[in-house]
Structures are given as structure tokens and as C-alpha cells.
Amino acid sequence: MNLLIGANFKMNKTNTELQEYFGTFTREYPNTPGVDVMIAPATIGLSRASELIQNSSVHLGAQNMFSEVSGAYTGETSPLMLQDIKCEYVILGHSERRTIFGETDELVNKKVNTALAHGIRPVLCIGENLTEKEAGLTKDILRVQLEKGLSGIADTTGIDIAYEPVWAIGTGKSATPEYAEEIHMFIRELLGQAKSRIIYGGSVTEVTAHELISKREVNGFLIGSAALDPHRLMKIIHETIK
User: Fold this and answer.
1) pLDDT on residue 86
2) Alpha-carbon distance 108 to 33, whole Å?
3) Structural domain of 73
4) Collapsing DSSP states into helix, strand and coil, what is residue 62?
5) C-alpha–C-alpha distance, residues 40 and 56, integer Å
6) Is the pTM of this model over 0.85?
């Protein structure tokens, strides 16, 4: 399978900044065999980003999507809207959506089902917070999030999983490669199939990428702040494949 390198811009980059970013990235990034690069700008930048990555190898991703296709859902984004701009991926269940906006496993599951029904590949995020980790509950938390997130889905091979330890996101503290390997192998066992990619997200940088990717069942990364600089993203990709 190809590795998946995902860049989550979160609430960063205006359309003007996106033009500069993609101008640099699409000009300087060599198409790398065996690697799928997915970039997820903020919703307001998706349409512009779709135009900017034409004729490049970059895949467009969204940071969120609603579970209904249309209706009175102020502020939400429909899967039909994502289809219309050729958005191929959608990040669902990110810890910031769960903690700040109160998204439940049940809502995330509805979104995953809706994405699949519209040909958009979900990147389902799961992860434990520091309190849960210190209490030894990591695997219990992940099992529940994964089982509920994938509930009712007979074929899960069209879904990628992002393990994002909440205690590592934006803190500069990355999980050790050995810890990431243990957790990714546990997730693979829960999935019961080998086709979905299990990617790691949690303060990934050009310094940590090479050792992390060398571990079993680490099939790529979901990168936050380090991906806001196109040259840093390219360095991480280089470290991933060297």
C-alpha cells in the first residue's frame, strides 16, 4: 500500500496564503512513488485549493463534514459540496472536534458512513488523552472509539485510521517510536484487515518522522503545525522515504 502523508492546516492559511503555499509545494515537490500526499485546508479554502492543485499529485482533503447531505444545518459542509470540488479525503473525529465541539462517537460514525456513501475516503481519528494514558486506559479508549466509529460498516478497507494521542498534539511531545508501534499493531489487530492505512499524528516533525515510519504498522502521518511550511512538509516526506 502507499504511505499516506496528511497535512491538517486547521484554522490557518487565507486563500492568498494558500496560493503562495501551493505555488511553492507543487513547483518543488517531486512526485514520490509509494506516497499519497493529502492536504486539508480550512473549509473556506477548499475550493481555491482544488484549483491550485490541478495537474499535481496532491490529494485534497477536508477537515470535517456533516452527516447529512443538505438542509438547515447552519455552518456545516455537505458531502455533495466536497464531491463538487473533487475532495478525495475527509478527516473525521479529530480530537479537537471531539473536545471543543462535543462530537460523539455516534456522530463520527454517521459522518464516516456518509463519507463512504459519497465516495470520499474517511481518515478516522482516535486517541487517548493524558489522564486516560496515565490511568492505563489507552487500549480500552481506542477500542471503544474504533468500534463505535466503524459500527455498521461491513467493509472497512476504504477507511484510513489516524492514531493521534491527544497528549502529544501541539505539545512538542511525540510518542516514542516503540509506543507508536505497540499502539498501531493493536489497532491493526482490532481492524482485522491489512488494507487500511494506520497513520500517526502527534507533533510529527522532520526530526521524528524517519524513526517513527520505520516501525511496524506506521503507514504514514497526519501532520499539523509542521506542515504549515511547505519546505518542512517536503522534508518530512523525504525523511519518510529515505
Assistant:
1) 98
2) 32
3) 3-241
4) strand
5) 15
6) yes
CB 76 within 8 A of CB 66: yes
**Catalytic residue chosen out of the listed positions 96, 103, 128, 164:** 164
Q: In b/e form, how buried is each residue of 166-184, taking b as 16+ CB within 10 angstroms?
A: bbbbeeeebbebeebbbbb
Q: What is the CATH number of the domain that holds 114?
A: 3.20.20.70
Strand partners, 199: 162
164 noted as active-site residue: yes
Is residue 238 annotated as a catalytic residue, yes or no? Answer: no
Residue 85 is placed in which grid cell?
Answer: 470540488
Residue numbers belonging to the annotated binding site: 8-10, 170, 203
Work out how many domains the chain is built from and give that number.
Answer: 1
Do the beta carbons of residue 102 and residue 81 sit within 8 Å?
Answer: no
> Exactly one of 94, 181, 217, 239 is catalytic; which is it?
94
- Give mean pLDDT in consecutive 10-residue pieces for the chain, a chain of 242 residues: 98 98 96 96 99 97 99 98 99 98 99 99 97 96 98 97 91 86 98 97 94 97 98 97 87
What span, in angstroms and rounded, lies between the C-alpha atoms of 124 and 146? 8
Nearest to 201 by CA among 179, 221, 228, 225: 221
Annotated binding site for substrate: 8-10, 170, 203
Q: What is the pLDDT of residue 31?
A: 87
Query: CA 123, CA 112: separation in Å to the nearest integer?
Result: 9
